[in-house]
Amino acid sequence: MTRNPAIPLKAPERFFINGDWVRPRTPRMLDIVSPVTEEPIIRYPEAAPEDIDAAVAAARDAFEHGPWPRMEPSERASYLRRVAALITNRLEEIAWAWTTQVGAPISLTRKLVPQNATLFRYYADLIETYPFRDDRRRADGGAVRVLREPVGVCAAISPWNAPMVLLTYKIAAGLAAGCTMVAKPSPETPLEAYILAECIEQAGLPRGVFNLVPSGREGGDHLIRHPEIDKVGFTGSTEVGKHIMRVCADRLARVSLELGGKSAAVLLPDADFQQALPSLMVYSMPITGQVCFSLTRLLVPNARKDEFLDTFLPAVRGLKVGDPADPATQMGPLAMARQREKVEGYIAAGRAGGAVLACGGGRPRGLDKGFYVEPTVFSDVTPDMKIAREEIFGPVVSVIGYDDEDDAARKANATRYGLNGAVYSRDVERAYRFAKRMKTGGLTINGLIVDPEHPFGGYRESGMGREGGPEGLDNYLEVKTIHIA
Ligand code: NAD
Question: Which of 37, 64, 220, 353 has its CA 20 to 30 A from that of 361?
């Protein structure tokens, strides 16, 4: 695989705990396999329960006795701006880390990585004016002071598909609130978390405010069960999210959950398919479909189904699939072997379930190594089919026909998820009216926008709470009401 040789793809052999790079307490190691060459490329230590306990103890000490939660918000903001500047210096390295571990095209990762710095800057600006203290009056004329205080020691657990930004959403908001953090990235993608830890160290944040303990499922489970963790900020699968909520319910630890999706793009009867095409091409299967908010169900009027397929299929067939390190590549491989196995299982289920395979379905010719799957479109899909109900997390899109707007709304909402969506129409007011009928946490009219300065999250089994925007800060705050008698 071609890659920028200046980028050292090596994870440090230590964990970041209490402001120091500390040696692992056990010799457990994790391997990362390249999605392109199928060869192991990175070996790094996995945190054991004892390492995680040390990280939580450091975060607890920093929260109870350190300056961070007690600082003026403007002082915290200046640290966050320093972190943003340090991240900005390393964007090229962050983009390559993403491309190398996940197989996301370098053209895309380069475009997206500045969001990480944006999030730190955004929360720095927000807390300068945020009403952490609100003086009010009771009906009897007495004074009331409503305070917003940091929740405490927080665990930030993230998945592998967009490794840095899904961690940054939590860390930037949690730190801005005055919390102390223990980060546990996905075992498949530790590199960006190390870069973040280095930036936080260089920015001079007090000891113990941010701690990094990369580990797998077992380590994550130990972390969420830890009695000193006041809150878990989690992004990942719905199944693990439910497990975390059940565990946290025992001690009523706070949780915010960003989970799976099966989002619909609804092309209303008057939609302009040519206008819709660019955003559908990018967002129906971004990062080889491994993005929670992908528009994986395309709802089209039955009367215009053929016209839609004539527009969409040639564009899908024309996607340039190949080495993600090549700037011309539009779609790379799936991130790991188990992911390809799962996606191929869904393609088989689509065929067996009676959907029409309109394009793709196999492995691309000429790419013998790497976890590649062709971009795949099924038409004549009905909402009861497995491929229409379950999150595939691969480059597989279902085209579902509808008769009228009521039928479209019913089909769009026929899912246990509710993360994202899009509505296309030449009439924005009509699209807006339809958008209000969709049971989903986010929507775009005539395109797809996810902006970290605005809330993002799910209805139903797509999650709980919101990340981004002021709502993302609220996730890390408790409300205290002080009455003056
Ligand atoms: P996953 O749920 O398997 O793992 C996510 C993280 O949780 C990893 O760090 C993992 O090590 C950890 N984990 C696993 N079991 C745990 C346990 N018992 N206790 C504590 N931590 C545990 O998900 P994944 O395969 O890494 O990511 C893909 C999923 O993430 C998809 O379902 C996708 O839709 C979802 N996702 C959601 C969003 C969103 O914002 N809503 C964004 C990206 C991905």
Answer: 37
